Amino acid sequence: MNKPLIWILNDVWEAHDYEIERLSEEGYEVAVTRLKDFDADLKKYAGSASVVMFQVGFIVDKALIDTLDNCKAIIALGMGYQNVDMEAATNKGIHVSNIPDYCIEEVSDHTVAMMLHGMRGLSDYSAVVKSGSWDSFAVSGVKPIGRLTVGLLGFGRIAKRVAEKLKPFGARIIAHDAFIPREIFEEYDVEPVSFKALMQRSDHLSLHVPLTEDTKHIINTGSLELMQDGAFIINTCRGGIIKEDDLIQAIESGKVGGAALDVLEEEPPDFSNPLLNRKEVLITPHAAYYSDDALKNLRIKACDKVIEAVETGTIGTALNHDKLK
Question: Active site includes 265?
Fold first, then answer.
């Protein structure tokens, strides 16, 4: 009897020692494909793969899914699953799952750190000193955090932790999420508001929504014009939430005072992207999720789901579980 084949599509991690060792112990075969080898490996592995695991950089579209004739599950090695054609997978009877809870502490830490950077004007102060000046009055507009309103677009797991971590600083916290009951906002002492009110009232706006047809470019010229002059934007979710050309224009006009971005629409970016050269913009390389603990946790949880899929033919927490019943 042939061993179940686990096909890993990943050009990000240098090694898959943990996955290979653990899944081999379960009696599975493991194949790892890098982008440069994809076309050749597609012919070798697609038809027999029992589970496909993938990282950012690979598109699991209908063309690929149509070749997965033995596949029980597609598992994103992370939170993001926008690269999967969900309709095609569901029509093929394939469960699609992500790992939504492996880095909640890391991303919320990163978000709060980015906020504090903007609230206190740390980059501006550093630039003053590096220019040869020792002037504490050189940066204007700095306010006590307790006088600021922080807006959260989305109020899922990470946004809730951001709210908890910000509370001791005394900032007022508001949030917009049409899918969260009012009692949940009350539990976290966060004021629920409309999207329009969120944009109008936020001194610092932090984004915490998945990338969907409804949220793509939701931060655009129209929504940015609603904001207070000099507002600050933090994005640790998905780059496509922001229409980057509109953000650049808003920064250039002074409408937006600055931004801290861990994600961009194109990753890795074109390094001529104007956002990378604006002093008002702090950019980190999609690193908010990262810690040694988080990566270990991600690998463990992903392998748990592989084993569940192979042994039971399903994943109880699959994103399309209800549609497959």
Answer: no
Return the CA Rg of the chain. Answer: 22
Give me the catalytic one of 110, 286, 299, 308.
286
Q: List domains and CATH numbers for the chain.
A: 5-102+292-324 (3.40.50.720), 104-283 (3.40.50.720)
**Hey, what amino acid is at 229?**
D
Catalytic, 267? Answer yes
- Which residue among 187, 266, 267, 311 is the active-site one? 267
Q: For this structure, is 161 an active site residue?
A: no
Pairing status of strand 191-192 against strand 204-207: unpaired
pTM passes above 0.85? yes
Rounded-to-integer distance, Cα 151 and Cα 111, Å: 12
**pLDDT tens digit string along 253-268?**
999 999 999 999 998 8
Q: Of the residues 238, 244, 265, 308, which is catalytic?
A: 238
pLDDT tens, position by position, 284-301: 999 999 999 999 999 999
